[in-house]
Every structure is written in C-alpha cells, then in structure tokens.
Amino acid sequence: MKTSWRSASLVASAVAVLALTTACGQENGTTQPGAQNVGAAATASTAPGADGAGIGSGYGDGTAEQGAAGAEAAPAGKLAVSANAELGELVTDSAGRTLYRFDEDTAKPPKSNCDGDCATAWPPVPADDVTAGAGIDEAMLGEVTRSDGTKQLTVGGWPAYRFAKDVNPGDTKGQGVKGTWYALAPDGKKAQLADLPGLSTREDPKLGEIVVDKNGMTVYRFMKDTQWPMSTACTGECLEKWPVVAPVPAEDTEGIDLQGSTPNRGYVVFDRPDGIKQQSIDCVPIYTFAGDEAPGDTNGQGVGGTWYAVAPDGKPVGLPDE
C-alpha cells in the first residue's frame, strides 16, 4: 500500500470554471459553487454490456483457498496495539493478525451482519480466551452472540473479524475493502489513512497520475459516455458494478483540473436521466469500480475495452492507440 495518495499541488476552488448556459450540453446541470447552471438536453442511451466484466461477492472475494490457513475461528489470545505507518494504531491478535470491523454491523447494540460467504472471507474472532494486552482497555472488550449461536469478540461494541487474505503478521490487506471494512483502532473506531479530499490524485506505478476518491479508490470513465452533449451509457445493472462518483465541492479537491479542456467545460455535476447526481471532470461522468477491493486497486482498467482510469484533466489513462 502506498504511503501517499495525493499530488503535491492544490487547485484552489477560486479557479473553478464559470460554466455558461451551454456547458457540457446538459439540461438542469448543477454546477459547483461559483459556476452558472448549464443548459441543452442530455441524452442517455443504454448499451448492452456497458457494465463490462463481472465482479465478486461484494465482501472482498476472500475464499478459503485464498485465505490464511487456520485463520478461521482461531483464538485471539492476548490482544495488542500495533503501530502502522499508514493507519496509526490498530488492534492485533496474539499472532500479530490485524482485526477489522464492518460498517454494516452495529455497535449499539452490538450485532454482526456478516454470515455465510462473508464470514468465510472475514472469519469472526471468537470471544473465548481473549485478554487485554498493553494499550488495550479491558472495558472496551465484549462479546456478541452470532446467528449461529457462537460468541464473537467486540471492541468498542463493534464485532471483530480477521481477513482471510492477510497471511502474514502485520498484513492490512482488508483495509478499505469495498469501502466498508476497516482495521480496528483500540477504541473501536476505524483505523484509517490520513483524510483525503473528496477527489485527489495519486501516482500509480503503471498508469501514472490518476484520480482517486475520498477513500483512495481509483476513479474511471466509460468510453461509451459522451462529453458533448454530456450523456451516460451506464444505466441499470451497470451502476451496480460502476457506482457513480457523487458530487464533490470544488474546494474539496486536490490536484484536479477544474478548468476543463475548452471554455465552459469544467468541473460540473451531471444530472443523470435516472435522477442520480454524478460528478464530472471536463464534462466526463466519473465512476468507481465495485471490483476494486482496496485503495490502490486498478482492476477496472481496460475492462471491456471501454473503462479507463481518469487523469486530472478528465482524459482516459492508458487508452490503447487507435
């Protein structure tokens, strides 16, 4: 995992384009603060196969054969606090394995919503034989009864899990998976990367400078969408695999080109025909990929020959030469 996701330069919101009524060619287009509304009707088309390739289960696609042998139901023993360069302090078990929490669980009251395939990818940590090591407040530890009757450890009320793909002590491969899984901090909160802007850039070793969202997830564009007039060919089931990037205020960006390639084509919000508001860069609708499990993944790159990571100016990255 990279230790920095940002580009060095901050583009001030004051340079956001003052889009005129024809910007991006969409109807009822919503502009960022300081920009004018845009006009002209947007057209949408449905494209068979617009969603590209299939994806996995939605729980991180961890499987027993991919996971760490013996991770399932292994006693946690004495918990410890480990320092991680990117995430700060996080909780590990006696073997040094990272413990995680799931956003779809609840802490008040404690409840686990990870069963079946999810529990294979994310083995629950048994509550038996757990003790508090240095840095762990014993009062933060508890247990919850799962749907199968077993007792699961809780930290700060949050059910605790391991990740099947963490094979070595200190691994944090589960961090940020699907935007719902996070390493546990000693107080039960999420151990997270330093806060990122709503949109920023990072240097990818293969693709160069690309746009990422607030979770560090790679941002993509669909080559069947149109820029002028702005329209989308990703609708219906396509959006399950390629979720739209929600509107991000111009002042909550870093390294993004807010001007656009031509006058009046800048950083505006696309009012999609399905009623969803979607951020665009240079009048290009932008998405993330459900097949990317963690920050740094670029599994959507080149999917179907139509999906590509986005450069700070909205251009596709790594598009093959015609």
UniProtKB/TrEMBL annotation:
Keyword Lipoprotein part of the UniProt annotation: yes
The keyword Lipoprotein appears for this protein: yes
Database matches in PROSITE patterns: PROKAR_LIPOPROTEIN
InterPro entries found in the cross-reference section: Lipoprotein_repeat (IPR005297), SCO0930-like (IPR047910)
Residues of the signal peptide: 1-25
Keywords linked to the UniProt accession: Lipoprotein, Signal
Coiled coil region boundaries: none
Pfam family, one: Lipoprotein_15
PANTHER family in alphabetical order: BLL4220 PROTEIN
Record-given protein name: SCO0930 family lipoprotein
UniProt organism field: Streptomyces broussonetiae
